[in-house]
């Protein structure tokens, strides 16, 4: 928060995107060392190796950060605040959607349940006029202010957001807002953790 809200989100999203590159680079380095290819190893400069070590160290810090149970809540809060400050409608919707996804990830971790059809909620907000859209984002952002009540955003979504026109949902649909976390979602989480730890384990084994 102190380093700048938008910059913090950008860095977090960037690290997530470069994880596959770090995994691939580490595997290639392991193969080169394991099969002892001197000519290829000489082409890998110390600077490149140092950069890889720094990347893996950063990745390790990333893993420690996302392992904190409340982390996704604060990322979501940051995304909604950032969305409020965006004049470009597409960037505003980008951060709004990112905030929804992160808050949903927080619910999955703490409640083992997730918001049903969260993409429909995003679609519903995206077709509102600019004033109504800004009001929704502002209200949802304000619902994160009371940090001792981390389910307040969920209540806003169920009682206010889903009842708004257009595409207002039926009462029975709102009652079933939360569904149990799917197996695919659990597998994605495990995959993300493995992808983060694999480079660290490989490098420890080969050095």
Characterise the protein shown here:
- The model has no long low-confidence stretch (mean pLDDT 74).
- It contains ten helices and two strands.
- Helices cover 75% and strands 3% of the residues.
- The longest helix has 30 residues, at 5-34.
- The radius of gyration is 21 Å and the shape is elongated.
- It is an all-alpha fold and 207 residues long.
- A two-stranded antiparallel sheet has the order 1-2.
Enumerate the strands of the largest sheet in spatial order, edge to edge or round the barrel. 1-2
Number of domains: 2
Oligomer description? single chain
Overall morphology: elongated
Low-confidence stretches: none
- Average pLDDT, rounded to a whole number, is 74
Radius of gyration: 21 Å
Task: Sketch the major β-sheet.
Answer: 2 strands, antiparallel
Instruction: Provide the succession of SSEs.
Output: HHHHHEHHHHEH
Query: Cα distance, first to last residue?
Result: 37 Å
Give a short overview.
The protein is mainly alpha-helical and 207 residues long. The protein has 10 helices and 2 strands.
Strand-helix topology:
Elements lengths: L4 H30 L3 H6 L2 H21 L4 H14 L4 H23 L1 E3 L2 H9 L3 H13 L9 H10 L9 H5 L2 E3 L2 H24 L1
Antiparallel strand pairs: 1-2
Tags for this model:
single chain, 207 residues, mainly alpha, 2 domains, 3% strand, elongated
